[in-house]
Amino acid sequence: MDFASNITAAALFQQVLVGLSRTTILFIVSSGLSLVLGVLRIPNVAHGSLYMIGAFLTYTIAAAVGPGAFGFWIALVLAPLGVALLSFAAERGLFCHLYEREHLMLLLFTFSMTLVFNDLVKLIWGSDYRSFTAPGFLQGSFDVFGLPFPRYNLFLLLIGPLVAFGLWFLTNRTKIGKIARAAAVDREMVGAVGINVSWIFAATFVIGCYLAGLGGALVAPTQNITQGMDHTIIIEAFLIVIIGGLGNIWGALLGALIFGLTDSLGILIWPQFAIVFPYVAVVIVLLFRPKGLLKSTW
């Protein structure tokens, strides 16, 4: 069977754009995971649950404020902040006492937090799915070489570079970013010069979890909001972090590009097995670059 027989240049370009918009969500979530992993050395399995909570908070806030652009923007601002506050309470109350423990214990602890967060979601929102509609100016589509392309996907394409630039600025041009990078290399030396490493870790953890909440807020209008939406994203995020380089934010961007584009192009080339394409790409990358595409901070 010739799978490429019906592929046109317009369809290919459209799927690339769709893949790039999906890359935005994957990068935002994965960069937060990579930041926490790189600085705190915590494989935060609960990251996906925070993404889910961000989506549910977006729905709740938008429903409380009211439909339309105002409710959308308010929810997009407040939902990730709500996730950040929740993560701050978890970090100060629990995580800060465990930084010196073995990675396996940290992994098990974050997994237990996933169960707690899932029960919290079930207690507050129940088991039914929720849906959230983007405001009117982001609904509908426009033509790309005669094929429809959703307006909301274009919005995601604009958000992605802004987040990437913001992360670059934070890690390279701010004092807290430079200290966090130093702590990732030698936390004992950073503490020896009088810097409170614990609060640097807290700030890093909160920023990483804020990005998970932001990813959940941005994905809310594109799919049903339900329990279990955290499972797929955390698997994908860990794979992206691994192929990009453990703790490397720009590796997360590169990994998200690979994952998003192969997923989108797989739908065009072989729809029945499209889900396999990103994982095949991961296997190929790890065969040739077992430590990831870019330098790992571990």
Task: Give the SSE map.
Elements: H1 9-40, H2 47-65, H3 69-93, H4 103-125, E1 141-144, E2 147-150, H5 151-173, H6 175-185, H7 187-192, H8 197-219, H9 229-244, H10 249-269, H11 276-288
Antiparallel strand pairs: 1-2
Helix pairs in contact: 1-5, 1-8, 1-9, 1-10, 2-3, 2-4, 2-8, 2-9, 3-8, 5-6, 6-8, 9-10, 10-11
Q: What would you say this structure looks like, in words?
A:
The chain has 298 residues and is mainly alpha-helical. Helices cover 71% and strands 3% of the residues. The chain has eleven helices and two strands, in the order H-H-H-H-E-E-H-H-H-H-H-H-H. It has helices spanning 9-40, 47-65, 69-93, 103-125, 151-173, 175-185, 187-192, 197-219, 229-244, 249-269, 276-288; strands spanning 141-144, 147-150. It is globular. The mean pLDDT is 89.
Strand count: 2
Shape: globular
- Helix count equals 11
Terminal CA distance reads: 45 Å
What is the average per-residue confidence, as pLDDT, rounded to a whole number? Answer: 89
- For the biggest β-sheet, the strand order reads 1-2
- Helix percent band: over 70%
Summed up, what is this model?
The protein is mainly α and 298 residues long.
Keyphrases for this structure?
about 300 residues, mainly alpha, two-stranded antiparallel ribbon, 11 helices, 2 strands
